[in-house]
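Q: I have two molecules that I believe assemble together. Could you output structure tokens for the complex as a whole instead of separate predictions?
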Amino acid sequence: MFVELNELLHASPERPEQGTFTLLRDTRTDGSFLVHHFLSFYLKAGCKVCFVALIQSFSHYNVVAQKLGVSLPAAKERGQLVFLEGLKSCFEVLFKEEPPTGQPNPLQFIREGGSNLKALYEFVRTSLTPSESDSWKCPVLLVDDVSVLLSLGMRPVDVLDFIHYCRATVCSQLKGNVVVLVHSREDSDDTENELVVNALCHQSNLILWAEGLATGYCKDIHGQLKIIPRGPAVLSTERDLPRTYQYKIQDRNVTFFARGMSAAVL
Amino acid sequence: MAALATGGATRRGIAPSFRRAGEPGLAALPGTRPSLRRGQLLLSSGVPSLDAVLGGGLAVGTLLLIEEDKYGIYSNLLFKYFLAEGIVSGHHLFVASAKEDPADILKELPAPLLDDIYKNEVNEEETVFKSKESQDYMKIAWRYQNLPKMEASPAASSRFGHYYDVSKTLSPELLQSTKWHRFFLPEEISLQPNINICNMTSGYTRLLQSIQRIIYQEGFDGSHPQKKQKNILRIGIQNLGSVLWGEDICCTDNPEDIHSLTKFLYILRSLLRMSLSACIITVPAHLIQNKAIMERVTNLSDTVVGLESFIGSERETNPLYKDYHGLIHIHQIPQLNSLICDVSDTKDLAFRLKRKLFTIERLHLPPDLSDTVSRSSKQDLAESAKLLSSGCGAMAMGKKHLDF
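A: Yes, here they are, computed for all two components at once.
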């Protein structure tokens, strides 16, 4: 959890917002630091988190989360975190002989070859539906990242359907939050991906867009972050205007500053 | 099991730091070195200067993707360096190809520069250095002691990463002592009837099954912990995505199965992350018609390095590049176990193949030594330098304005 980003977003772990769909988008840079931020933010806020991690292994997220002051294994034991490790499930689907007992594997679609994300949705729904004994604040779904689903042969329509179902269940029904990461590029030839990105932008309540600098790589400024709130126009106030900040990622923190105000160039 | 690969030190971080002296840790594996800050195990790509550019080496459990140069000369060389480094370090090898017989590839590996005279020199140097250190700590050039040892002498990395002589081939005795596995696509196809899981090109399915079988049988996934000494599996896959693999992404803009390659890479990634292995893949990126595939492939790989040789291009005769054989573009460096990645200061890198060595160097203008340099030729150089900066900065897209 990066304190400066919380201030910019007017968010605090004491009272997390409910019912928002946040889109994390990165262009020419790696926006995964935002995923780490939201993971630790919601765990600290006491929300029930379902993390669909398709691109990295659990140990990777765990090491980074430790640096940010959160222990993922402990959260898992408490029942606060449901972690779907895509790489591991994929291995189990394809190479483990014994038939799975009870529930189907959420990544069943890799084996079957069809374009069916129903099992994944069911996984999200069952893991986030609160039971009697739960005392967690609100449910949160995190996906890192959606572009992988397209690489695995899903059609854009299926991916959008999946996100829509998740939004309907988590945001509306359970009054929780959905946070999703996508990659994009302006000059991209990947029309399917652009289609998904545009549609998700349209549906989102808040877009955090990390971009690499247009002038190229710089040691002291790793990129710029556009914060685009997308509330209803009538209610928008001064603080709901799109804003742009530059950032620098450090070992355990990210510092944000206004454009051109990097400590290195002043 | 997954903690073995990229988070080897994680478990150690949680467990008490006490360790019995005789207990073999992961760091005891030959040819690797632990990266303490990241909590991962690194191994050398076979080119020490490439290791330096990639932040110390390749992490175990990750994938290095090489975008081939136009004629595949230098990418093939990097491929062989990676395998030769495995042989010298005593790792197991898995060589997959659709073009050449893996046995032939292994026969042509470059010989390491490991002669005894050289070793003795290193030892002497070390002892001298140690005796100096034990004396009063006084140093004249103390300002330099904190500088990063980027292109240090070969002695510094004599255990991790070796230098190779491309003019000689590896001795057959060394080759015989290593354990290696082969995957030659034409053979495999004749062996079995057509099988197809998860709608991939059958060559890919076979290759994945073959890799999985070896990882399981030889215990690289840590399934038989007490069985034998742990070791690293180095996987090399040549020309992946070319027509020879039964893939049509090189021939048409709208291939029949656009997802074959990306699916393969995802499953390979899952295999790598769960085992003690590292993989190098060369892909003919310039042949792949649909650029969307290349974007996805980049996202699914860990380290992506592009080679651009000057052979056959107009840059070959450009005075700016007369010292080099090509440019190297670092497209992606993974951020493993950390928020940031080790990016080298400069992105303008070039490679050259000297008589014996392949090195990667920072690109710089050649010194202007002649007295009668005319103004026009200087301008030429300046122009080509501009051309270079636009071609080289991997992330530099727009050139219109400065952000700060």
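A: One point stands out. Chain B is about 30% helix and 20% strand.
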